[in-house]
Specification:
The structure holds two protein chains of two kinds.
Chain A (H helix, E strand, L loop, with lengths): L10 H29 L9 H13 L9 H33 L1 H15 L7 H8 L3 H26 L2 H9 L4 H38 L5 H8 L5 H29 L1 H6 L1
Helix pairs in contact in A: 2-10, 3-4, 3-6, 3-8, 3-9, 4-6, 5-6, 6-8, 8-9, 8-10, 9-10
Chain B lengths: L2 H14 L2 E12 L2 E12 L3 E6 L5 H9 L6 E6 L2 E2 L8 E4 L11 H13 L8 H10 L1 H6 L15 H13 L5 E5 L7 H18 L2 E5 L3 H7 L2 E7 L12 E8 L5 H17 L1
Parallel strand pairs in B: 3-8, 3-9, 6-7, 7-8
Antiparallel strand pairs in B: 1-2, 1-4, 4-5, 9-10
Helix pairs in contact in B: 3-4, 3-6
The chains are: A mainly alpha, B alpha/beta.
The structure holds adenosine-5'-triphosphate and magnesium ion.
The site of magnesium ion has 2 residues of chain B, from helix 2.
């Protein structure tokens, strides 16, 4: 018999094996929900599927009585806006700093110690500071995301810049490149797909900081809503929101992968 | 015949007989480790130097000192009478064994990039008509190395041999005074290697290059070069292996060599390999 480490599943088997845990979780939930409902029909902890539908319908497809807005979509838009702004700013800062520290040893000597020091500060510890400096508005939430993921991105891009084979840098110099041209034409284009890789890794952290900021000070947003309805033990809202956030996270990751494959085919087929 | 007509060819031979590169008592050590010692040589324009030696004896170090990526510890290295610039520059072209083409650029863009560096000092990038023109101008060089048919491909779509052809085309477009090759065909299949030998000899003649080439393959060294160097230690201290550095122990003009010296060198490489 083949060793277990040498057995590989066919496509169909892999799919079936992958789906099984999802079905088990759903079945377990259904069973738990039914059991609790049988004991107490007003139980709020494990709502039935029907209750989920009506909660989603109420928030996503019926205008709010008070403001006339569709709360679910409003929350989604404002959360995504914060997330994307934070991630975009962090990416831009990290791209510049990662590249110049990776390419120019003098800049690395100059900036690496302070970047390392700053990256050791736990971002949540400076959240009050952000609220004081940037107010309770949008800016402080975006800032928390930036503070939270930029150090990781800078250090990752610094490393990735360093990993570009020295041979290429020497070659470019023998072709007459100066430092700026070398960064522009040799390093930057090769770092961009690696930036997208790094962003994929940091998106989870970005969501974490977004929801934390929204939980503490916000008037809308996915994280805000979850923490608001927690007081009423509204599991029928919390669980769909969590699943929606999970789906959005999956979607963003998918978009990054496909954008990268489309824009940098040489990067993906060379690996 | 007029005097002028006579003078011109005379001048030309004069120039090609000039010493182009000179090493005077050059040594290189990494800390305690003396790698190269007492390197003395003169190389004329148009010579094709092939270099052999056991692994780790300092062939790449020698080449990198010429290239400017490794600083020598002692002595002088002169290129056309002037001390060598201590960083890579367009007067010295290089082809490494690997990684010397840009993976994110197509074949044409890989060759055109040096034109773009020249014409656009900040961005290093041309646009529109000028870019088109730069790309078209690469055709001559791609033709010379037999890559014209693959001009729109990316390096990952090329075989190892084709990538090396591209690296050579890149280097040639800058008309370097010397071309440095560090085991350029070491990773290629024997059949493809033969084609590459033909190409290098063709280009060497056509563009009157001075070539320094490191190789592991003594046959390759004998076949290609006009002059073969063997790097080896002349003295060996078993208690302190780093005490003595390698130097050029054989400097043979090829063509005049016989079977006997081939065998002699092969033996010396062999015995070194065994003792290492
Ligand atoms: N950057 C470095 N720092 C310290 N020692 C080095 C460095 N580069 C090379 N050396 C040492 O110098 C010696 C010569 O290395 P080099 O790469 O020139 O050998 P080589 O003749 O090219 O070998 P090979 O045939 O394996 O390529 C080796 O002992 C190596 O360990
Ligand atoms: Mg070597």
């Amino acid at each position: 018999m083949k060793r277990w480490i040498n057995k590989t599943p066919s496509k169909t088997l892999a799919f079936v094996l992958g789906v099984i845990p999802f079905i088990l979780v759903m079945a377990l939930y259904q069973w738990g929900s039914d059991a609790r409902k049988a004991e107490n029909s007003n139980d709020k902890l494990l709502p039935s599927v029907g209750q989920f539908y009506s909660a989603i319908d109420r928030l996503a497809f019926t205008p709010s009585k008070r403001t006339g807005e569709y709360i679910f979509w409003k929350d989604t838009v404002s959360s995504l806006k914060r997330l994307l702004m934070g991630v975009a700013c962090a990416a831009a800062i990290a791209l510049v700093l990662g590249l110049i520290t990776g390419a120019i040893p003098l800049m690395a000597a100059n900036l690496s110690p302070i970047i390392t020091t700053l990256s050791l500060i736990p971002p949540m510890a400076v959240l009050p500071l952000l609220f004081i400096v940037f107010g309770l508005g949008e800016l402080s939430k975006v800032m928390l995301i930036i503070v939270g993921i930029t150090p990781f991105l800078i250090r990752d891009l610094y490393q990735k810049t360093k990993e570009i084979p020295q041979e290429q840098l020497v070659k470019a110099q023998t072709l007459g490149a100066n430092s700026v041209q070398l960064i522009n034409r040799v390093l930057l284009p090769q770092i961009l797909p690696r930036l997208l890789d790094a962003l994929r890794l940091s998106l989870g952290t970005a969501w974490l900081f977004l929801i934390a900021a929204e939980a503490i000070a916000a008037t809308e947003g996915l994280g805000y809503r979850i923490f608001l309805v927690r007081r009423y033990l509204s599991m029928d809202i919390i669980l769909p929101y969590v699943m929606w956030i999970t789906f959005l996270a999956f979607l963003l990751d998918w978009l990054l992968v496909h954008a990268s494959k489309k824009a940098f085919p040489w990067y993906h087929s060379a690996k | 015949m007029t005097k002028q007509n006579n003078a011109q060819p005379a001048n030309k031979t004069d120039e090609s007989a000039q010493t182009q590169i000179e090493f005077n008592h050059v040594a290189k050590s990494y800390g305690e480790n003396l790698v190269l010692d007492n390197i003395n040589c003169e190389v004329k324009r148009g010579e094709f130097i092939t270099m052999v030696g056991t692994s780790g004896c300092g062939k790449s170090t020698f080449l990198n000192m010429l290239l400017g990526t490794v600083a020598h510890s002692k002595g002088d290295i002169l290129l056309e009478g002037k001390p060598i610039v201590a960083e890579p520059s367009p007067d010295r072209g290089i082809v490494f064994q690997k990684y010397s083409v840009f993976p994110h650029l197509s074949v044409r863009e890989n060759v055109a990039i040096s034109k773009e560096f020249e014409a656009s000092p900040v961005l290093g990038r041309l646009f529109g008509e000028r870019r088109k023109q730069a790309l078209t101008e690469t055709d001559e060089w791609l033709e010379a190395v037999g890559l014209l048919a693959a001009k729109d491909k990316y390096p990952h779509e090329l075989s190892g041999g084709m990538q090396q052809r591209l690296a050579i085309a890149q280097a040639l477009i800058k008309h370097p005074k010397v071309l440095l090759l560090d085991e350029p065909f070491g990773a290629l299949d024997p059949g493809i290697r033969k084609d590459m030998h033909k190409l290098v000899l063709e280009l060497w003649k056509k563009y009157q290059l001075t070539i320094f080439m490191v190789t592991h393959d003594l046959n390759e060294g004998f076949y290609l070069g006009t002059r073969l160097w063997v790097f080896d230690k002349t003295r060996h201290d078993p208690h302190a292996p780093h005490r003595y550095g390698s130097t050029i122990t054989f400097d043979l003009p090829i063509g005049k060599t016989d079977e006997a010296s081939f065998v002699k060198i092969e033996k010396s490489l062999e015995s070194n390999r065994l003792s290492a």
